[in-house]
Task: inverse folding
C-alpha cells in the first residue's frame, strides 16, 4: 500500500500546488490512511486536514480534488464522501503484490541502514546473580531491535555491559573466602555465589567487622591484587557460562561483554577532561556537573571520597565505543527508571563538545511485577528466568503430547514454542507500559500469544506441504475474483514494510508483534471461510499462493522478534 500512498500523495500535492497553495508531499503522505470500514475504500484522505492549507470546507475540498485527480495507477475509482476522499484499489494491484512478496527475497527490508553502524547495549546483567523475569525486558527488546536494525541494513554491535565492578565484589570475595571454596563453586555454579552473598549480607547486619573486610577486599581488587583479580575473573567466567545457557535458549549472542570493570581505568581520563573543560564544580566535597540550566538535576560525577559514579563510567563507555566502532547510533535498552540517568549522561557528553552525543539513544521499558507485586530479590518475590523457560517448555511438551502425539520431534518443537511464549509475552505490548506478569497468561496457547502465532505459521506450512507447494514459486497463477477475506489478507501483507519501518523509527518491537497478531487473525479468518485444498482451478492456485505469502511474512516476523519458526505443532 505504501507505493499507492506515494502515488496519491504526489498527485494531490501537484493539484494543490497548481491552485496556488503550498504543501509538502511528505505531509500529504502522512494524512493518507486505511479506513476502518472497507466499504469506504482501501485508502482515504481526510480533507479536514487540508482545510487550513486550502482555506475551504473539507467536503468542498474533497469534491474539487476528485474532479481534478484523473486516472491513477492501481486505482479503479475515487469517491468524495463528506470531508473524505476515498480511493478504491484495483484488484490487479493485490495480485501483483503476491508476486512481489514471493519473488523479492528482501520484501519488507529497507536500505536506510546501509553503510551505518548501530551499537545496542542490552541485557547487561550483574554477574554472580541469577537471571530473573525482570531481565527479560532489556534482553528480548534489545535482541528484537538488533534483528530489526540488521534487517534494515545496519551493521549491529550487540553489547552486554556487564555489572562486574563495585563494592559488592568486595563482599563477594570476602564471602567466598569465609564460606566457600573452588570445589563447591565448580559443583554448584552461580547458585553457590548467590547463597554465600546472601549469607554474608545477613551476617554483616550482626557483625560490623564484615563491612571492613568487604571494603578491604574491594580495595585490593581495585589496586590489582593478583589473587583477588583471579577470584573476580573466576566469578565472571562462572556467571557468563551460566548466562550463556539462557542466551542459547533465547537464541541470543553478543559481540562484546565489556562491562564496568573494562571501563574503570578509563574514568580518570574522563574526570580530567571534565576538569579541563571547566565542567566540574566542587559541591560539599563531591564534584558535580551543573545541569539545572537544561531542566536536569545537577549530577554528581565524583564522590567526596574520590570514587566515581555510574555516570562517569557510562561517559567513558560512550567515548570508547565511538572510537572503537564509529557508530552512527548507540542505543541503551534499560528500564524507564534510568531515564534521568541517561538524560544527564547524554547532556554531559554534549557539553564536553562531542557532536555525536545526539546519536546516543535511551530506549526505556516499563517495570515488571508478579501478580501485582514488585519484583524484589530481598523479599524473594522473584521468578528466575531459567526456571520460567524450563516450566514453559515442560508445559508445551504436555500440550503437544495431548494434541499431536504423532509429532516426531516433540522436544525441539516444545522448546521453540515454550521459549517463544515468553519472548512474545515480553514484546506484545508497548515497551514503556508496565507489565504484570501472570504465569497462566504468559503460557496460554489461546488469544494474543506467541504459541498462537507459531501455530498459525505451522498451519500455513501444513497446508503447503499437503499441496506440494514448497517449490513452485515460479508457477504462473491465474487470478479469480477475490473474496473480501482474500482482499483483507493481501492488504495486511502489503502493510508489512510499513510496520518494519515504524518499528525501526520508534525502536518499538511491539509494532511487529501487533502486526503479526493481525496477520494471523486475517489468515485464520481466510482459512476458515475460503477452502484452500478443497477449492479448484484458479481459486485453489491463488489461495495456495496467498498462503505461501503469509507463511513467508510470518516467518520473517518471527525472525525479527527472535522466535523460532515451527513447521509443525
Result:
Amino acid at each position: 500500500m505504501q507505493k499507492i500512498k506515494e502515488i496519491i500523495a504526489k498527485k494531490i500535492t501537484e493539484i494543490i500546488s497548481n491552485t496556488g497553495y503550498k504543501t509538502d508531499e511528505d505531509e500529504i503522505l502522512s494524512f493518507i490512511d486505511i479506513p476502518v470500514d472497507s466499504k469506504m475504500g482501501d485508502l482515504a484522505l481526510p480533507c479536514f486536514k487540508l482545510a487550513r492549507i486550502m482555506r475551504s470546507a473539507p467536503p468542498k475540498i474533497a469534491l474539487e480534488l476528485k474532479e481534478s485527480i484523473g486516472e491513477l495507477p492501481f486505482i479503479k475509482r475515487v469517491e468524495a464522501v463528506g470531508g473524505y476522499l476515498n480511493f478504491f484499489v484495483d484488484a490487479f494491484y493485490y495480485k501483483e503484490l503476491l508476486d512481489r512478496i514471493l519473488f523479492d527475497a528482501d520484501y519488507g527490508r529497507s536500505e536506510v541502514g546501509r553503510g551505518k553502524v548501530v551499537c545496542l547495549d542490552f541485557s547487561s546483567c550483574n554477574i554472580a546473580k541469577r537471571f530473573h523475569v525482570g531481565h527479560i525486558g532489556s534482553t528480548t527488546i534489545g535482541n528484537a531491535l538488533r534483528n530489526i536494525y540488521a534487517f534494515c541494513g545496519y551493521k549491529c554491535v550487540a553489547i552486554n555491559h556487564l555489572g562486574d565492578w563495585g563494592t559488592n565484589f568486595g563482599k563477594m570475595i570476602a564471602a567466598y573466602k569465609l564460606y566457600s571454596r573452588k570445589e563447591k563453586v565448580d559443583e554448584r555454579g552461580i547458585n553457590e555465589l548467590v547463597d554465600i552473598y546472601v549469607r554474608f549480607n545477613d551476617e554483616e547486619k550482626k557483625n560490623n567487622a564484615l563491612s571492613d573486610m568487604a571494603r578491604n577486599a574491594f580495595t585490593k581488587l581495585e589496586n590489582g591484587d593478583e589473587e583477588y583479580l583471579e577470584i573476580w575473573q573466576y566469578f565472571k567466567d562462572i556467571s557468563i557460562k551460566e548466562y550463556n545457557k539462557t542466551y542459547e535458549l533465547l537464541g541470543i549472542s553478543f559481540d562484546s561483554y565489556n562491562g564496568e570493570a573494562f571501563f574503570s581505568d578509563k574514568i580518570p581520563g574522563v574526570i580530567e577532561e571534565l576538569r579541563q573543560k571547566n565542567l566540574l564544580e566542587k559541591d560539599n566535597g563531591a564534584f558535580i556537573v551543573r545541569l539545572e540550566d537544561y531542566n536536569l538535576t545537577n549530577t554528581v560525577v565524583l564522590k567526596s571520597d574520590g570514587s566515581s559514579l555510574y555516570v562517569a563510567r557510562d561517559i567513558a563507555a560512550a567515548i570508547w565505543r565511538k572510537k572503537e566502532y564509529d557508530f552512527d547510533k548507540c542505543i541503551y535498552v534499560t528500564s524507564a527508571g534510568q531515564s534521568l540517568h541517561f538524560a544527564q549522561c547524554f547532556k554531559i557528553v554534549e557539553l564536553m563538545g562531542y557532536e555525536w552525543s545526539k546519536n546516543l539513544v535511551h530506549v526505556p521499558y516499563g517495570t515488571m511485577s508478579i501478580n501485582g507485586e514488585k519484583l524484589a530479590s530481598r523479599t524473594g518475590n522473584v521468578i528466575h528466568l531459567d526456571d520460567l523457560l524450563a516450566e514453559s517448555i515442560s508445559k508445551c511438551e504436555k500440550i503437544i503430547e495431548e494434541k499431536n502425539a504423532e509429532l516426531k520431534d516433540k522436544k525441539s518443537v516444545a522448546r521453540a514454542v515454550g521459549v517463544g511464549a515468553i519472548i512474545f509475552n515480553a514484546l506484545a505490548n508497548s515497551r514503556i507500559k508496565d507489565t504484570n506478569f501472570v504465569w497462566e497468561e504468559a503460557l496460554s496457547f489461546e488469544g494474543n500469544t506467541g504459541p498462537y502465532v507459531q501455530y498459525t505459521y505451522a498451519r500455513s506450512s501444513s497446508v503447503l506441504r499437503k499441496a506440494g507447494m514448497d517449490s513452485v514459486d515460479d508457477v504462473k497463477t491465474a487470478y479469480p475474483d477475490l473474496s473480501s477475506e482474500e482482499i483483507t489478507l493481501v492488504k495486511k501483507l502489503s502493510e508489512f514494510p510499513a510496520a518494519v519501518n515504524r518499528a525501526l523509527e520508534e525502536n518499538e518491537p511491539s509494532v511487529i508483534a501487533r502486526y503479526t497478531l493481525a496477520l494471523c487473525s486475517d489468515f485464520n479468518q481466510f482459512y476458515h471461510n475460503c477452502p484452500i485444498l478443497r477449492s479448484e482451478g484458479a481459486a485453489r492456485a491463488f489461495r495456495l499462493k496467498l498462503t505461501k505469502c503469509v507463511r513467508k511474512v510470518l516467518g520473517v516476523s518471527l525472525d525479527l522478534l527472535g522466535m523460532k519458526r515451527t513447521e509443525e505443532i
User: Anything to note?
Assistant: Residues 471-475 have pLDDT under 50 and may be disordered. The first helix runs from residue 2 to 18. The CA atoms of residues 370 and 437 lie 5 Å apart.
